[in-house]
Every structure is written in C-alpha cells, then in structure tokens.
TrEMBL record:
GO CC aspect terms: cytosol
Enzyme superclass (EC): hydrolase
Source domain of life: Bacteria
Organism: Candidatus Brocadia sapporoensis
One Pfam family linked to the record: Lysine_decarbox
Enzyme nomenclature, EC number: 3.2.2.4
SUPFAM superfamilies reported in the protein's UniProt record: MCP/YpsA-like
GO MF annotation, one: AMP nucleosidase activity
Reactions that this protein is recorded to catalyse: AMP + H2O = D-ribose 5-phosphate + adenine
UniProt protein name: AMP nucleosidase
Length: 240
C-alpha cells in the first residue's frame, strides 16, 4: 500500500491575492497543528517522579490577609509532605502558594505557569521554575497534564474558570483519580447552586454524582488532610 501523498501540481498552488484560498490554507494548517499537539499529549509517563499539586486562587489577595496566610501555610504543609506546588505564577494567592513551597527546605519545586497579560508582567519572586503561555487555553492544558491534584482557594472569574474546567474534565473522565478540593466559604454555595439548578431541571442537566466530584474544605488543614489521603495512595503505587 502506497501512503505517499501525491506531489503538488500547479493547480494546487494558492495565489497570495486569493484571500479566501489563503484563509483556507491557514485554517487547515492550524487544525493540522492541533491534531499533532493532541496526538502528542496522548503520551503519558507510566509513573511520575514527583507528586504535584496545583493551587488556584485570586491574584488580588494581599500579603498578610487571612486568605494569603492560609494559602501559604497549606502550600508549605504540602511541600513538607513531599509535593511540588504549581500555580499561575502571578501575585496574590498564587504568590502565597509559591512562597509557602519555597519556604520549605528540600527538593520541592515551586512552579509558575503564567499567561501573558498586560497587567501582570512579572512572575512572582518565589517561583523556581516558570513557564509562559500566550493563551489561557494552552496554559490550562499544561495545568491538566502536569498535576496530580487541584486545590482551589477563594478567587474571582479566572479561578472559577479553572475550577469549572477541572470539574468538567473529571465529569467526562478525561481526568480520573484526581482530587479537586475547594477551600473556603465561597465554594459550598457554588456546589449548592449547581445541584439545585441542574438537578431540578426536567430532564436533569447533570447527574447527581457529578455534584460529588469537588470536595469542599473549610480551611487549609482540611484541604491538606484530603490531599494527604490521595498522596499516600499515590506513594504506595510508586513503591508497589
């Protein structure tokens, strides 16, 4: 069987003055690149060397506030446990988490996965390994590919976007066996809204089991305890 593509002929060539033809070539090329990327991301390591926890949260929280100090404390506790910490690399609660990770002596990494924004120019000073993205889409993809668990601190629209994406990937089993822990007072109301609004529709807009995917924690200690359970299972698999 001959898999070679036929050679281009003169009739295949697109003049740069043919605007619609040029647009179609560009669209087909971009879609082809996405196919390549999607194919490459099917490759997964059989085992990770390190357990990695992504912490999402507000960029607006200030140092010294309760949310900042709790996030820093949670990240430090997870780092002492042996986890690497991943954030969006920016200010606020992202900085708090990276600061907590960097405060622990040892081999834990404090990672920042940034997106190019006009109002956040610098990665925070506590990141020891940084990645840069131009779009939220590729950035969120890296979070998914590199994380073993997700902890969500209080945050705004960006944090909600990140939370909903992870929730949806867990719902459709594109992610499996990955904790999604929501910390603080703002999240139980979101789960309650989703349960009341989606399950009361006829037909229901989600399954009852979907509402149990995120686990709510009142504070940093409860969040760390939930991650510890999963981390211990992961450790036993590493040495099994």
């Amino acid at each position: 069987m001959n898999n070679k593509k036929p050679a281009e002929t003169k009739s295949d060539l697109i003049s740069l003055t043919d605007e619609e033809g040029v647009k179609q070539v560009l669209v087909n090329s971009v879609l082809g690149l996405w196919d390549v990327v999607n194919n490459l991301t099917r490759l997964k390591p059989s085992r990770r060397d390190r357990y990695r926890v992504t912490i999402f949260g507000s960029a607006r929280a200030k140092k010294g506030t309760f949310g900042y100090e709790e996030t820093r404390r949670a990240a430090a506790a997870l780092s002492r446990m042996g986890c690497d910490i991943i954030t969006g690399g920016g200010p606020g609660l992202m900085q708090a988490a990276n600061e907590g990770a960097a405060s622990v002596q040892g081999h834990a990494q404090s990672v920042g996965i940034r997106v190019d924004l006009p109002f956040e120019q610098e990665v925070n000073a506590f990141v020891t390994q940084a990645f840069e993205h131009r779009t939220f889409f590729t950035r969120l993809h890296q979070f998914v590919l590199t994380s073993d668990a997700f902890v969500v601190a209080p945050g705004g629209i960006g944090t909600v976007l990140e939370t909903m994406m992870i929730w949806q990937l867990l719902q459709v089993h594109h992610l499996e066996n990955t904790p999604l822990v929501l910390v603080g007072k703002m999240w139980p109301g979101l789960i309650e809204w989703a349960r009341d609004s989606m399950l009361s529709a006829d037909p229901p807009l989600a399954n009852a089991g979907d509402m149990t995917i995120p686990r709510c924690a009142a504070n940093a200690d409860e969040a760390v305890a939930l991650i510890r359970e999963h981390y211990q299972i992961w450790q036993s698999g590493q040495h099994g």
